[in-house]
Amino acid sequence: MNDVLARLGLSDLNPGAWNGAAIADGYDGEITSENPATGEALARVQLATRAQYEAVVKEAERAFREWRMLPAPKRGELVRQMAEAFRAKKEDLGALVSLEVGKIRAEGQGEVQETIDIADYAVGLSRQLYGLSMHSERSSHRMYEQWHPLGLVSVITAFNFPNAVWAWNAMIAAVCGDAVVWKPSLKAPLTAIATHRACEEVLAKNGWSGLFGLVIGRDADVGETMIRDPRFPLVSATGSTRMGRHVGRVVADRLGRSLLELGGNNAIIVEPSADLGLALRGILFGAVGTAGQRCTTTRRLFLHRSIAADFTARLVAAWKQVRIGDPLAEGTLVGPLIDAGAVAGFEHAVAAAVAQGGEVLVGGQRVDRPGHFVQPTIIRARPEMPICKEETFAPILYVFEYSELGEAIAAQNDVAQGLSSAIFTDSFRSAETFLSAAGSDCGIANVNIGTSGAEIGGAFGGEKETGGGREAGSDSWKAYMRRQTCTLNWGRDLPLAQGISFDV
Ligand code: UN1
Question: Fewer CB within 10 Å, N- or C-terminus of the chain?
């Protein structure tokens, strides 16, 4: 077994249900986690049964009843220790992310750094869960609102951020006083177990357990049970729009809350005034980074007609230099896609683009080596082509020309998704137009920065089919708490609001 896995406490065969310790009571088949760069098996995981799911949730309920009464800054102290644990394990955990989902070393390490950042952020937040106080219209009355822990939070994550997206939710939920049950992607179960264990060591050292449950199981079984389970007032799900639409419906039907972070179809507009060197770097990281498998990946590029030909040639030259290969090797910029299905999705999209009138300028092929590698691809296209309106989780960039900024913004917005967007310009007027209410309709809008790689301090998420949820920084914490409006009468009368008199 790989040393990294062993150091993180993983075995050849790992249980799939955890709440503190593993819950060893049968299993429902097993899966093998493979390295997408080589196709080699890393380790196996036993899938959780419904009985194990039940045990994990029961334990989370028990933990919640105590955790919610621990003062928030004390909860923050445990999260501070978790941040320290992630710092100590950053190298190994980042390497495991690279091994399991194929991120290059810098991005695997960067993902764990994102977890450390949100944990640090949550520590400070634990002293800032502020409610407002209002002036009552009644004399000798005081009115204010307070935020209480919400309860059990279910977190469903995708393969592409197998560590940080859980942390966005769990670190915030923990300081808010909630217990969390995590259902990770079956494509990244080992990272989930290692992440869970890092936090559990901290909890155990402090005499706590049960706060973070982990259930690795099938969508149709454990996943369905979880989203229907009324013990979860909040379901936070990251993944495809198709998945989110289903989760949203099911949770809405029981009047639960869902926090959805779904597909993106992110665009960059490049104006003639832009610093084109800067734009090139932003587009390269956005379109090629993580092999095009971020929800913030740049998928569409609008180039002003006056710069399109020259700038496209520069892009193509840069794309040709990108080193594809072993994600952990020095100098690699592009690792593999997650699996054979993703490669088929890439090939389908390239074929569809060509059939719809697109022209492949560079890339377009799978790479002939073991693992699931494809070439970063640029396709000259028209924004209205149906394939350009879809999110394909692969490094394909569709390039368009435009004449007027208004036309580019309208076309950028003319897709179902609304996650991230950017403009490269040195024109103050263009930047402000892009950021105005009539500008980008996305949850994230950047100027002279690409679409991906957001910091945790801002609220992360998007509009339309992206699902409307906001995670990570700003006031996203409010989704994990329940608001209570309290009015106190310290007088000797009972005046009624709205001046109503109601006496016998
Ligand atoms: C995702 O792809 O689901 O902004 C999250 C970014 C990262 C998070 C991406 N900080 O690209």
Answer: C
